[in-house]
Amino acid sequence: MRILFFCLFLAPAAMLAQGVQFESKAWADILAKAKAGKKLVFLDAYASWCGPCKQMSKQTFTDSQVGKFFNTSFVNAKIDMEKGEGPELATRYQVEAYPTLLFVDGDGVVVHRALGYHDVAQFIALGTTANDPAKNQRSLDQRYAKGDRDPVFIASYLAAKADASDPGVSQIAADYLKTQKDWATAANMEIILHYANDPKSEPFAYFMKNRPAFTTSFGEEAVAGKSQIALRQYLEANPEATLSETQAAIRQIMGGEQGEKLANYYPVLFYHNTEAFDEYAQAAVAYFDKYPPTTWNELNEMAWSFHENVRDPKMLEVAAGWAKKSVEMEANYYNTDTLAALYAKLGNNKEAIKYAEMAIDLAKKSGDDYSGTENLLKSLKK
Fold this sequence. Notes:
With 382 residues, the chain is an alpha/beta fold. The chain has three domains: 14-132, Glutaredoxin; 140-237, no CATH class; 293-380, Serine Threonine Protein Phosphatase 5, Tetratricopeptide repeat, CATH 1.25.40. 67% of the residues lie in helices and 7% in strands. The chain is built from 21 helices and five strands. The chain starts with a helix and ends with a helix. Residues 1-17 have low confidence and may be disordered.
């Protein structure tokens, strides 16, 4: 009797020590359990191929403190969005990235959401916020809908929307800034820096016009990061934009020499991604003529890409020249192997054998896998 009592007494603690306990029931049953217990459902919306999802499963969900908090506070579910009920739930809850971490009430309504890997401390903080009726995203949405525009509230509201990767965050920021007479205050500049990412918006135009002031206040790295986010959002929102339209947007968003250089490089990406390899080769040569590469790796990467994608012998000769210059800068297995492969594709077996043997010798010293080069050498010596 004492042994049985002792085992029963320890059972809850042992369960908590195991980390988060996930339900294996159907989604409707999970919601019903949450509603009956007056709890929220925590849903780990994951995909089997997602690296950060696996990392959270291994490092975060197994933590005893996480288990203690989540097993007490929520009904927990872990569902692959590509299997079983997953695709329907992914559509219903607009899951577009992994992991998406959802907190859902018993009626199936999302109360709070976040994206991406969270470590133990971040995950417990996320759950604490989601479980607080005054701080979760649903309550913030309700306050905003009722007209609350207090600056402190707006800052927290925008942060919550950004954490959830809400596409409406830029518009919320723009609408709030319309109510502000002075955009040069520290608080408003911070809102513009972090949330006004629509390149067609007035706040973004203000950011570009006053970029030096933003750099002084927040640093060059933060300003450059904002431009990159805005550019990524533009590319995602305008997949049908023409080459010239995208180049113009790059110049507008990035600005200065960086914008000009990236606009000139974009045709290389565009033609590569559309598999128009003749145009790709011409664009790459034009780019390197205007912006000569300064590292062996930059030369080698483009030369190898030509080897994989380009057929024009004249262009392959240009690529061989890049690879040879790369070897002259710093001979290593990778660029000597590239040069050997290019010479082989050009039919210059003598030079191909020479550099293949050099590549193998270098690989033996560096510990790189040279099996591919060995196969090339065998084919050249037949």
